[in-house]
Amino acid sequence: MAGEHPVVDALAPRPVVETTVVHEGRVFDLRSDVVDLGDGGRVTREYLDHPGAVAIVALDADERVLLLRQYRHPVRRELWEVPAGLLDVVGEDGRVAAARELAEEADLRAARWDVLVDYFTTPGGSNEALRVFLARDLSPVPDDERFAREAEELDIELRWVPLDEAVSAVLGGALHNPSAVVGILAAATSRAGGWASLRPADAPWPERRGG
């Protein structure tokens, strides 16, 4: 309606009176902030201070999306996911990180990269920002350059699934990994619009920590 503000998330930080690292972890920290909400008073909020991550919807020439099955201990389940990984190298470009993860987890390279969608994974309890890339024009990583997987990644199972079938799996409640859910639905929506919504791989990403 005329006169209404556009529906755009806005940076609007409240004053942090005190901040404490409650626990320093290997991947992320648990932080406690005392926040001044003005008329709402001062409140204490605990959250995960996270470096951020990238995920990849790899789409082949037959419009099949690559899914991989991996054990996730916090939920005690093997989940079908898209390739993804942490932004744990300071200052590393998001597309470079995504290319590394695609090679390490799926033994694939992509000649074409675009941004599908950006989101916060759990904004009520974490500052993790995640960017989902669309990777196309795929080719295999040579055997002598492939990454040696370990831990949970050792038993990864890869499967190519038609994009429409993947959408049905999401909407039917069969898939639960957030990057897969968001990425698959974003890819299907963008494809329906002739891929007009895609952004360049180096599109600004101010939501990324330090971005």
Describe it for me?
- The protein has 211 residues and is of the alpha+beta class.
- It has two domains: 14-47; 51-191, Nucleoside Triphosphate Pyrophosphohydrolase (Alpha-Beta Complex).
- Helices cover 18% and strands 38% of the residues.
- The protein has three helices and eleven strands; from the N terminus they run βββββββαβββααβ.
- It has helices at residues 94-106, 163-171, 178-192; strands at residues 16-24, 29-36, 42-49, 53-58, 64-72, 77-81, 84-86, 108-120, 129-140, 157-162, 199-200.
- A five-stranded mixed sheet has the order 7-4-9-8-11, with helices on both faces. A three-stranded antiparallel sheet has the order 1-2-3, with no helix packed on it. It has a three-stranded antiparallel sheet with strand order 6-5-10.
- A hairpin with a 4-residue loop joins strand 1 and strand 2 (29-36).
- The longest helix is centred in the C-terminal third of the chain and has 15 residues, at 178-192.
- The two termini are 32 Å apart.
- 26% of the residues are buried.
Main features:
alpha+beta, 211 residues, 5-stranded mixed beta sheet, Nucleoside Triphosphate Pyrophosphohydrolase, 3-stranded antiparallel beta sheet
Q: What is the residue-mean pLDDT, rounded to a whole number? A: 93
Q: State the total count of DSSP E strands.
A: 11
Provide the β-strand percentage band. Answer: 35-45%
Biggest sheet, strands in spatial order?
7-4-9-8-11
Class of the largest domain, according to the CATH hierarchy? Alpha Beta
Distance between the termini: 32 Å
Biggest sheet features:
5 strands, mixed
The helix/strand series, from N terminus to C terminus, equals EEEEEEEHEEEHHE
Number of helices: 3
Please, what is the CATH homologous superfamily of the largest domain? Nucleoside Triphosphate Pyrophosphohydrolase
GO molecular function, one term: hydrolase activity
Domain Nudix hydrolase: 48-188
GO biological process, one term: ribose phosphate metabolic process
Keywords: Hydrolase
